Task: inverse folding
C-alpha cells in the first residue's frame, strides 16, 4: 500500500511539474496590427481567455500536450500545440478570411411576424412542392382569403385571383420591391410570366389596406415576390411534369455559380402546354428568366429580365 501511494504521489508531482504558463500576442498576418478580443481556448477544457488592448493573452497551468485554438471574427482559425510556447512571448498571426453569404434585402414591402398585419410567407421549398406548371393564382389558392379562377378550368393559361374580394386592380404585386402592376390599368397579367415560380426564393401575401408603399394602392392586399438568391456552385437543372388534360411543363435552368467571388449569372427557359379542362381551352405558354449580379464588399447590384407569351384557343 505504501508503494501505491508513493507511485500516485510521483505521478501527481510529475503532472504538476509538466504544467506551465503560456503567453503570447495575436496579430494580423498582413498588417501585423494587434487583434483585440481574439479568443484563446484550451481545447477539451473549459479554460479560455481573450486578448487585451495590447493583443496580449496569458493562460496558466497548461500541459505540454494541450492544443490551443485561436480565433477571431473575419480571420481563419489557428490551432497551436502548447509545446511550441517557450518562456518568451509567442506571436500568433491570423490570416483574414472573407465570408460570402446570401444577400440581405432591407425593404419596406415586407412585414415580419411581429408586425400588426395579416400576412403569409411561402418558402422556396413550399413553392417547389406545389409548382407543377399552374399559374401564380393557383399556387396561392391554398392561402387564406385567396380565390382563384382559370379560363381553361385547370389553372394554366389565363388565370386571375381575388384576395378578400378585391381583384388584381386593388392588389399591389412587386418583384424584389419593384412594382409589376401596369401603370395605367393597375392589373397584372399572369400569362405574361408563366412558370415565374421556378425562379423565386419566397412569396409573401399581405392582406388588408395599407400594407404596401410601392406602386399602385393596395386596397385589398399585396403580393411580394422575391427572386432566387445566391447560389455559389454552378448548376444545371431539368424539370418535367405531366398531368391531366395533356398538361405538361418542361423547365431548364442553369447557373454559373460565384465567379471570382464577385459575379453570378443564371437563366431559365420554360414551356407549358395543356388541352384545358373546358372544350377549346388549349394553351401554349413559353417564358424566360435571366439574372446577373455583382457582389461587392458592401454593395450588391442585381439585374433581372423575364417575360413570356401565350397562345390560346377560343375559350
Result:
Amino acid at each position: 500500500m505504501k508503494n501505491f501511494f508513493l507511485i500516485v504521489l510521483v505521478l501527481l508531482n510529475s503532472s504538476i511539474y509538466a504544467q506551465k504558463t503560456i503567453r503570447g500576442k495575436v496579430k494580423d498576418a498582413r498588417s501585423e496590427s494587434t487583434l483585440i478580443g481574439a479568443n484563446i481556448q484550451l481545447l477539451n477544457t473549459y479554460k479560455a481567455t481573450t486578448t487585451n488592448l495590447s493583443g496580449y493573452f496569458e493562460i496558466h497551468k497548461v500541459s505540454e500536450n494541450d492544443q490551443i485554438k485561436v480565433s477571431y471574427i473575419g480571420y481563419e482559425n489557428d490551432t497551436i500545440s502548447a509545446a511550441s510556447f517557450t518562456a518568451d512571448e509567442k506571436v500568433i498571426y491570423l490570416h483574414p478570411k472573407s465570408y460570402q453569404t446570401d444577400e440581405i434585402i432591407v425593404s419596406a414591402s415586407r412585414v415580419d411576424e411581429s408586425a400588426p398585419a395579416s400576412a403569409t410567407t411561402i418558402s422556396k421549398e413550399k413553392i417547389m412542392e406545389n409548382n407543377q406548371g399552374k399559374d401564380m393564382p393557383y399556387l396561392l389558392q391554398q392561402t387564406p382569403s385567396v380565390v382563384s379562377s382559370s379560363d381553361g378550368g385547370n389553372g394554366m393559361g389565363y388565370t386571375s385571383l381575388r384576395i378578400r374580394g378585391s381583384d388584381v386592380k386593388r392588389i399591389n404585386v412587386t418583384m424584389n420591391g419593384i412594382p409589376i402592376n401596369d401603370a395605367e390599368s393597375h392589373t397584372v397579367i399572369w400569362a405574361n410570366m408563366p412558370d415565374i415560380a421556378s425562379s423565386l426564393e419566397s412569396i409573401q401575401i399581405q392582406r388588408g389596406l395599407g400594407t404596401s408603399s410601392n406602386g399602385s394602392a393596395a386596397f385589398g392586399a399585396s403580393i411580394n415576390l422575391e427572386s432566387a438568391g445566391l447560389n455559389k456552385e454552378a448548376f444545371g437543372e431539368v424539370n418535367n411534369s405531366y398531368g391531366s388534360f395533356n398538361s405538361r411543363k418542361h423547365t431548364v435552368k442553369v447557373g454559373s455559380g460565384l465567379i471570382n467571388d464577385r459575379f453570378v449569372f443564371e437563366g431559365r427557359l420554360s414551356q407549358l402546354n395543356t388541352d384545358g379542362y373546358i372544350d377549346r381551352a388549349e394553351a401554349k405558354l413559353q417564358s424566360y428568366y435571366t439574372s446577373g449580379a455583382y457582389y461587392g464588399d458592401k454593395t450588391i447590384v442585381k439585374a433581372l429580365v423575364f417575360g413570356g407569351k401565350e397562345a390560346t384557343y377560343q375559350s
User: Anything to note?
Assistant: The chain has three domains: 2-94, 118-227, 235-312. The chain has a mean pLDDT of 83.
